[in-house]
Prior knowledge:
By secondary structure, this protein is α/β, with parallel strands linked by helices. The chain has a 7-stranded mixed sheet with strand order 1-3-4-2-5-6-7, with helices on both faces. Strand 3 (54-63) and strand 4 (66-75) form a beta hairpin. The mean pLDDT is 94. It has helices at residues 32-41, 82-89, 104-108, 110-120, 145-154, 171-186; strands at residues 7-10, 18-26, 54-63, 66-75, 94-100, 127-133, 160-162. The chain binds guanosine-5'-triphosphate (GTP) and magnesium ion. The site of magnesium ion (MG) has 6 residues, from helix 1. Magnesium ion binds next to helix 1.
Amino acid sequence: MEKTYEIIELDKNVNPEYCFKAVVSGNSNVGKTSIVRYEIHNQFEQDNKATLVFDHFSKNYKICDKIIRIQIWDTCGNEAYEEIMKNFYRSALCIFVVFALDDENSFLNLNKWIYDIKKINENESPIIVLIGNKKDLESERKITKEEIEKYCRKNEIDTYFETSAKNGESIHELFKEVIRKLYIKFIE
Ligand code: GTP
Ligand code: MG
């Protein structure tokens, strides 16, 4: 039976024992910032502006008596900044790659993001988490579960979540899974 881990969200002011760098990447407008904001503020901000280059967020959690901080670099999907963004991937221990389920182009572009991430981290292997966002837009969905499963198999991605930053579906679960994976890989 798989071991269960209790994960508690903590206040911003506690001092962490471990700090992990995470990066959020993916095309513009897929909901990267909305996902991170939902995890931190527990609400959806409708008139979110496009990210200018990058934003920085952090959140603390407790897992098995260890206090962990995840430092999140939220990048912009603007192609003009691609070269700068590549530097952010360096030394990240977790990379969230986001596409929107109603935006075929964002799915077709995944290869580009994942290729860059793997190339820059050739000697290390960050945890890669694939996220299909805007799940609430069910009737506008363009990418099927089967296509996504095939993509994950082919690219050896074992963590995939379908989320909605609008209604919060699976957002906290996603972050808890990431904390669990970081704990198992780097602390336990
Ligand atoms: P860049 O910063 O430009 O790279 O974009 P981003 O990926 O950070 O996207 P952002 O979070 O700014 O969201 C883009 C638009 O999609 C905004 O209008 C959001 O309100 C909307 N949006 C984000 N997530 C969802 C979602 O889950 N469902 C729906 N319906 N809209 C969403
Ligand atoms: Mg953004």
